[in-house]
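sanity check this fold:
=====
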Amino acid sequence: MMEIMTLVLLLLVLTVSAISADEEPFIGVNIGTELSDMPHPTQVVSLLKAQQLRNVRLYNADRGMLLALANTGIRVAITVPNDQLLGIGQSNSTAANWVSQNVVAHYPATNITTICVGSEVLTSMPNVAPVLLNALKYIQSALVASNLDRQIKVSTPIASSLILDSFPPSQAFFNRTWNPVLVPMLKFLQSTGSYFMLNVYPYFDYMQSNGVIPLDYALFKPLPANKEAVDANTLLHYTNVFDAMIDAAYFAMADLNITNVPVLVTESGWPSKGDSNEPDATTDNANTYNSNLIRHVLKKTGTPKHPGMAISTYIYELYNEDMKAGPLSEKNWGLFDAEGKPVYILRLTDSGSVLTNDTTNQTYCSAKEGADAKMLQAALDWACGPGKVDCAPLLQGQACYEPDTVSAHATYAFDTYYHQMGKTPGSCDFNGVATITTTSPSHGSCIFPGSSDRNGSLLNGTIPAMDSKSSGASDKFVYSNAFSMVKTLMGALWIVVVL
């Protein structure tokens, strides 16, 4: 009996693996619109192009966005909003009309690949659950009628909270209250060759675990072997929450006798800011999570249950949404602000061509906002002295004299040194008072190195971590033999005085 069970499990693994083993994984982004100053669709598309983002998910089927995305080749997932599901789930003709207006009218100029029918319907709008399957079927029928069913997949994103007893993953099962909906829905996805769409948020799992889940385990940080979580039933080792949740979904589907529907992660991310009771919603943690997630997905690592299998993922989200209700963290999941400026520079070495994997011509070194003035002055003195930066443009009457502040002058000196050093890791640190930015600090006739031909393009980064502890980073600058720069009364000369 044990050998038969082993053989069955092996066949299950091979069946699922065969579905997507040959597929190349992708990273996409969700585009929310709850911004007080939402960028114009053409601006959104310009940002996507600059970032080499080839997959996006919209929470609607906005005509302006679909027109702006036309002829770009960007793969687009559109959404039937939850408030339209009742009508579509109760009327085949309403579904056909929706597909006609939002898909047929734009395809193939706009590369629509996926239709998300609602979002987390079972947990957010349970009253719509009875018609969810019909909505899926009616949308699919409309695609068949338009001969688009092979080009466009139909599914519905599910919240991971629907999976109970998720660790160890082998014991996971769906909330059985929803089995009357889930079983036929999964069979529909199976018969149409579609995906099981899952929203995966290790941040919430970590927050709700009351310390049981280590932060490093949630952030994909390397763990020693004795700290890895082990599924006692399968002896599989889990090094991160994300993989455990994906495998829990596969085991939960297997519990319902569905074994060949691949998982597509429709949302995952980490907030960069939170309220006082959300201490781990930080820029650094958001950067760490999303950078590690992107690498994990694009390297086709797979999961312990399905190694090497593509787990394509849409990051939540492109923009911070300042109009979102709820805690502060709800407004701060974005990679960019409304102006297209990156919230942080992703650390994406060896990640392939996503989020501009080469930003060597678009990064600058700037004085940190709020940095100690004395430390800035010391760093400025060093750059204009031993650092061999030509600080002549900072003299009174020269192009970069104004604004005459320590911060502005330090930024010029820092950025010049950074470029002189070839933007090597550690060359923008200056004892912690400098930071990498993707916004050009040039202004007026004061043109900073590397700015003249880029016009301050706002690109998120994929440079290595720039802290001084990074491997291969330069030693921190030490000022025990510091130089002090003193202006003459006329401001015409810089005099170097050895302390």
Q: What stands out?
A: The chain is about 30% helix and 15% strand.
